[in-house]
Amino acid sequence: MKSNLVERKTRKTAKPRHLQKVPTGIQGLDELTGGGLPKGRSTLLCGGAGSGKTLLSMEFLVRGAKEFEEPGVFVAFEEQIEELTENFASLGHDLDSLAAQGKLSVDFIDVARSELGETGGYNLDGLFIRLDYAIESVGAKRVVLDSIEQLFSGLSNTAIVRAELRRLFLWLKTKGVTAIITAEQGDGALTRDGLEEYVADCVILLDHRETAQTFTRRIRVVKYRGSNHGTNEFPFLIDESGISILPITSMGLKYEVVTERVSSGIPRLDAMMGGKGYYRGASVLVSGSAGTGKTSLAAHFAQCSTAAGERCLWLVYEESPDQIIRNMRSIGVDLTPAVKSGMLRLRSVPPTSFGLEMHLLTTHKLVKELNPRSVIMDSISNFTSIGSEVEIKNMLMRLIDLFKMRQITSMFTSMITGESFVETNSTKLSSVMDTWLLLREIESGAERNRVLHLLKSRGMAHSNQIREFLLTDHGVELRDVYLGSSGLLLTGSSLLVEQAHEQALAVAQNQEAGTKKRELEYKQKAIEAQIAALRAEFEIERLKALKLDAQDEERDTVRTDDRVQMAKQRQADAVKGRHMTERRSGDRR
Amino acid sequence: MNARPKRGVSIAPKKKPDERWMLKLYVAGQTPKAVAAFDNLKRLCEERLQGRYTIEVIDLLKNPRLAKDDQILAIPTVIRKVPPPLRRIIGDLSNADRVLIGLDLRPES
Fold first, then answer.
1. C-beta atoms of A126 and B75 within 8 A
2. Which chain B residue shows the shortest CA-CA distance from A126?
3. CATH of the domain at B29
4. pLDDT band at B4 (very low <50, low <70, confident <90, very high)
5. What separation in angstroms does the CA of A246 have from each of A30, A400, A409, B23?
């Protein structure tokens, strides 16, 4: 019979042409429900004790009154009005002033059983009349009944209560108000008293449960008749500004990209990225094992961006801000001026103090408050103690989305454990990162030396070479890639040894070359000397030859003269005489 | 066995015989339940409190504002403010015994 009634009711409600929605104004809830709660209908909000039902429903009214010009009526069956007002005052909502402005009516209906004696039949007209009066007095468009199932504990005749509740929900519909009915979650059922049978249009479940010793509030739209809605559980937060739900669907992945670059604070690192550094709004992952200089790299970035007049928010998860300042001073990076001028905000956040969602939210709030141009999270590995890898990745995705929307350059340091240099953790995270710097230690020659890889840097030409990464007393230095004669990367003292060795070799080669040259010179000189000697000899010989010629001539002359004289003496003519001589010699032959 | 009647006796004399009773009956229109409740209440009062009681009938349809002041939820509701302490019973008062207990209107001897 009960189900018949439900059927009838739902058939009646299923006919409207187009489902209208009422925005709640609660951050994230409207995205989750695709625009808000069903207009003119009742939504069942169930959850365990302390899951935030009262707060969420009251915020629905307060925001309605403040932001949407929709006055509201809050009927409390549990909490005294004073307490409620106090609780909301701490959230920054002045219920009294809203009530004074006629935008809100808060009514407490006491259903304490001890005061009620039941004698025979009754109905809940008193409740209807009060509700109606309250609705009419403020012209309410929104109504909250919190939590109406108190009626079951206050009134013993459940048959009457059920019948009256059914009547109430139908009546609320005729009043045209958008209502939230809260109910305590039951064992294995949405509500303890089966209220979901009456309110079937929209059911939202709140949950507050522990994972890894951290309590997380979650919200889920169980049912939303005639509308699309996010079906997953989404974490939400209650803090001093009320309820914030951060559905992953609120991620737009739509943001303006810029080609502007920001320096990493290390000239040589900038050089590796085309000489200009990171893109503004980029997400930079710096991963490395313990003591590889991740924080130092971040410190350079912080110092550089604050020096350029850009505010930087540095969330520290494992050290105190003072410790960071002291440690960075030891490498010659003095952060004190930036901290003093307020350009650098170092916030120490113990990672395990609250859940991932709270971290997400606090970061959100800090970013909105401080409006930084860069954010450093050091280090995100600490989140592994409070969430799974998937959860952490989701959180970071949402954070990066926020950062990109606001064009904030973000740097995340991540600790790598173990020997494998690309940890699975980092691999998963890396897909949401634009630039990935890997710091690692390589062991050779009985020492460990730091090296830096630029594993990826989206959208820019970048060096694929490994640089040696030095922490000096004047900051981080990147040293040249040095490939020894063996073709292996050399770092540290082995680099020095190799360099010395090569130098010695060069000197030796130089010397050898010198000697050879000198030898050649000597040889040359010797040859030249030989040439000179030969030339001198040649000259002598020539002179000798000339002398001989002269002598011969002289001799001939002398001989001729002699012959002439002899001929004269013999009284023969010269020619005859000569002929005679020739003939004589011919004879002899 | 001795103590019981004694206790009963000791409570009853608290209510002075001449004490005035002021009862409020909250109704929402002239419904059969409201009429029944009024009749039942009147009868009991006549029996027990003749001459020293008043019944004020408040119709919430005419004065809805009053529902809040006396924390009215169910209809009909009877409230006894005087003599204190405040007593409240709901229903059409068809169960006379429960009304007597609820209003602390037990026989005086």
1. yes
2. B73
3. 3.40.30.10
4. very low
5. 11, 14, 22, 55
